[in-house]
Amino acid sequence: MTDQTEHRSLKPYACHGPASRGRVLDEQEHQSSKSRSPFQRDRDRIIHSGAFRRLKHKTQVFVYHEGDYFRTRLTHSLEVAQIARSIARALGLNDDLAEAVALAHDLGHTPFGHAGEEALNRLMQSHGGFDHNEQTVRVLTKLEQRYASFDGLNLSWETLEGVVKHNGAIQNRSEICPAVAEIDAKLDLKLEHHPSAEAQLANLADDIAYLSHDFDDALRAGLFSIDDIRQLPQVGAALAEIECSHGALDLGRMTHEMVRRLISVFVEDILAASNANLDLLRATHPDDIRNHEGPVICFSAKMAADLETLRKYLFKNMWRHYKVNRMTSKAKRVVTDLFALFMSEPNTLPSDWQFYKEQALRDMTKTDRARIIADYIASMTDRYAIIEHERLFDLGPILR
Questions:
Q1: Does residue 124 sit within a domain?
Q2: Could you tell me which residues are beta bridge partners of residue 128?
Q3: Could you give the residue ranges of the DSSP H alpha helices within the chain?
């Protein structure tokens, strides 16, 4: 891809593919890659990874067997990527980079969503803990083992920066987890600086996607009703507009129209607030964004407050609803049982997980063994974790 093609109509403070800071392994560009920018190659590697495919059967809120309609980590990631692309395009930023960061951001999630993560983190407390953001970095830099020349996906500096700084700059060096420290030692990701504008908007696109679409899933699951949410900021105005234009609608149509409007309102607010910041900053290089005193891509103060109100409502009425709690309680027991068994009897693991670099897990320290077992459990889909638990703990077939 030529420099002119990559730059198209990008702003000077956007990340440009030809100016990428490179990869850990300096690959010899082969013929097929000349039609793609570095960030397009990153996106394609993420989509073709095993970890990305497994998101299809990983929980967002509802476990896979509770209904085919509800969102999974895969559909959520696609929705985040779509929103991120739209915002990036409108701001003159690199939509390929924004998309790559968005598609990668959840690759480290365990089965059963945050319930699985909470269980695994508790079990790993004596061995360094477990965090899905760190696990995403492990997936991208070492656990995906598909390429002949390297482990991981060997992504560009800019994409890895966006994933590592998903929650912003890392000012406190003591908070740097081992996986991040390892890749930072190789690439110098400037952890104390803000991420690129593309990474900042991918993070906000994540908020937009889960806040708006979780209302959709919760309404369809009957966790609360339309009338219950009429007084919420932004939601009430969207519902009033729909009813004024279309009258009474069935739940499915009403919910879809509400979600459409919420996403539009959130995106327009980001565009207005971010454009104002960019006009004041007068940035001429991507590093002007990274070195600024605060994030440049953001919501307005009022919208940020409204989003926090919506987040608190969903926390109380969806994410901690007793029906969801019952399923997450079961999920935690599945993860806990599997971890305990594999730690005490590593020979029950699949053959290719019983060794790491030709060393048997049973001969490793508990901490090294625990990390590999955590990698294995985190890689599972909801369905596979449930099946594994049945295979290992259900005595019925043995006794019949």
A1: yes
A2: none
A3: 3-7, 38-47, 50-54, 73-91, 95-104, 113-123, 132-138, 157-164, 178-187, 197-221, 235-246, 251-281, 286-290, 301-314, 322-344, 366-379, 382-393, 396-399
In terms of domains, do 272 and 170 share one? no
Length in residues, the chain: 400
Rounded to two decimals, what is the model's pTM?
0.93
> 165 near 192, Cβ under 8 Å?
no
Distant-in-sequence, close-in-space partners of 184: CB < 8 Å, separation ≥ 6: 164, 176, 191
| Token code pair at residue 204 | 């906000």
- Strands 359-360 and 355-356, by their bridges, are antiparallel
Q: Can you read off the two tokens belonging to residue 305?
A: 């407050």
Closest CA to 98 of 267, 258, 211: 267
Kindly state whether residues 222 and 288 are assigned to the same domain: yes
Q: Tell me: do 314 and 220 sit in the same domain.
A: yes
The identity of residue 142, as a single letter, is K
| 122-155 per-position pLDDT tens digit | 999 999 999 999 999 999 999 999 999 999 999 9
pLDDT band at 13 (very low <50, low <70, confident <90, very high): very high
In a shared domain, residues 243 and 332: no
The Cα 140–Cα 260 span in angstroms is 32
